[in-house]
Design goal:
Shape: globular
Largest sheet: 7 strands, mixed
Helix content: 40-55%
Number of strands: 7
Radius of gyration: 18 Å
Oligomer: single chain
């Protein structure tokens, strides 16, 4: 099974592809959307969960999403049709790092998609070129809750310098010319719900589709991920979502 199909199945019960509860997402969007905001952009939009919520909450807003995966964009289209917002959503199948636009956006989102840009700081650079004056950037990425040990690094396929601790992460963002106007650090409960949903949805699909050629491999992948989380990075890898504005 290709990685994108596996991700779709794994996020069936947790459409926000990050360790964030629905009320946390709502709070972040409340802080990021000014009354006069009318254009939003999601770089690495996946199935479009953030944009669909924005459009439902803000009937006058228009949005664009960018993702390299055709299946994810099709999921976003179907979801937008179901929510009645498809006429206000434009989707682009391309590398988010290569996206350019003739107009600027009042809200730019990139949550859990820093890998598409080569890291958090390059994500900020790309977003700056697309954000309207006075606009808000919502960016989410990992950080080290505590010093990672060998088990955590191995389970993540990461190195120590892939992330920093939370104070250093925020200091780096500020040094790039951004001011946090709100932020949310995912709780242990949000992480657990996300990981149990990810592994549980994938396991359930495998158990319900035993006749499928990919069922056994999918079942094993879910079990491996669960073990890597529980025995590796649980409590070590954190996730912070920041609402940012350009500094003076």
């Amino acid at each position: 099974m290709d990685r994108q199909r596996r991700s779709q199945l794994a996020h069936a019960d947790h459409p926000i592809a990050a360790p964030l509860a629905d009320d946390s997402v709502a709070r972040l969007l409340d802080r990021a959307v000014a009354d006069e905001a009318d254009r939003a952009l999601d770089l690495g939009c996946g199935g479009g969960a953030w944009l669909r919520r924005l459009l439902v909450r803000n009937p006058s807003m228009r949005a664009e999403g960018v993702d390299i995966h055709a299946a994810a964009l099709e999921q976003a289209r179907e979801g937008a049709e179901k929510d009645g917002v498809a006429d206000r959503l434009v989707l682009h199948e391309m590398d988010a790092a290569a996206f350019a636009s003739a107009h600027r956006f009042d809200v730019v989102l990139s949550v859990g998609a820093a890998h598409a840009f080569g890291g958090l700081l390059p994500t900020l650079t790309a977003a700056r070129e697309l954000l309207a004056p006075g606009g808000h950037l919502v960016v989410g990425d990992g950080f080290w809750e505590r010093e990672p040990d060998a088990a955590a690094l191995s389970s993540l396929g990461a190195t120590w310098d892939d992330y920093a601790d939370l104070p250093t992460t925020v200091d780096r963002v500020v040094a790039e010319g951004w001011t946090p106007v709100y932020g949310h650090v995912s709780t242990a409960g949000e992480w657990d719900d996300y990981e149990w949903s990810w592994t549980g949805s994938l396991s359930r699909w495998a158990l319900d589709h035993r006749e499928e050629p990919d069922a056994l491999d999918t079942y094993k992948a879910a079990a491996e991920h669960r073990s890597e989380w529980l025995n590796g990075y649980r409590g070590t890898l954190g996730f912070v979502t920041l609402v940012l504005r350009r500094s003076p």
